[in-house]
Amino acid sequence: MLRLLIAVGWFASSGCGDHRAFTPRALPELVVAQPTDTPIAVPELMLVDGETMIWDVSAGGLTIARAELVVGEDEARSRFETNALASAFASVRHEHRTFLDRAAARPATATESLTIDGTIRQFDASFDAKSYMVGETRHAVASPAHTLHSAIGVLRAWARPEARAGHLLVVQGGVLYRIDLAQPAFADLHGTRAIRIDGRARSLDTTRDPIAVVIWISADDRRAVMRIEIQGGAQHLTAELVDAATV
Predict the structure, then answer these.
(1) Which residues pair with 119 in a beta bridge?
(2) What does DSSP say about strands 166-172 and 145-146: parallel, antiparallel, or unpaired?
(3) In this structure, how many other beta carbons lie within 10 angstroms of the beta carbon of residue 74?
(4) Is the pTM higher than 0.90?
(5) Which distant-in-sequence residues (6+ apart) come within 8 Å of 84 by Cβ?
(6) Beta partners for 80?
(7) Count of CB atoms within 10 A of residue 97's CB?
(8) From the first residue on, what is the mean pLDDT of each consecutive set of 10 residues in the chain (247 residues)?
(9) How far apart (Å, rounded) are the C-alpha atoms in residues 78 and 34?
(10) Angle formed by the axes of helices 148-158 and 2-13, to 10°?
(11) 9 to 1, 30, 242: CA distances (angstroms)
């Protein structure tokens, strides 16, 4: 699931791929998250030591990749990799590791490795309450920035129908994104009670149009990330949870 965000965010914000393919279509007003000045903050990241989640990523009805998240005591690791079918057109592999500052409910440091058709790019980042650093460059932020791992931990802890709409800042591939999120609402997904969150993500370093995002989180105590959809232009990508466990 996390790597679905990576794949779309990467191709939409970098020199890779056809940018026009990821220009989002307008969504109905009811599901477009409006920008808000309220940053989302929680007292504790909902990332459980020993937890694993695995998602199948599909486009056009075909499974094109698998994503996996593994959580430890003070870190979260994930991997996204296209399958043989998708790799016939483009091979993508992304590995991401976040060391967590659990007391502050944010990341401490992170490393990323992105390989597209054999070309490797690596990123190192560090975080504090008022800034983040990529490489040797420090950037000030109005609220703490997150990695995708810590952002998932925030969303799972925050996602309740009484929660207020807000936004998160996320650093991905060395680029700062803002994700505006509407108030969560109960919804049914495949016969299971879930919490639906509508949002849109945009890079703060470019003027490209935002990408529409919809996330479903289970309404039980697990708060599993059941499904995520991203819509951009003719592209409609979906990640479905296929396995979740805690050891």
Answers:
(1) 116
(2) parallel
(3) 12
(4) no
(5) none
(6) 67, 94
(7) 18
(8) 43 37 38 74 97 94 93 97 85 95 98 94 96 95 96 97 95 92 95 95 77 94 95 82 94
(9) 30
(10) 130
(11) 13, 24, 23
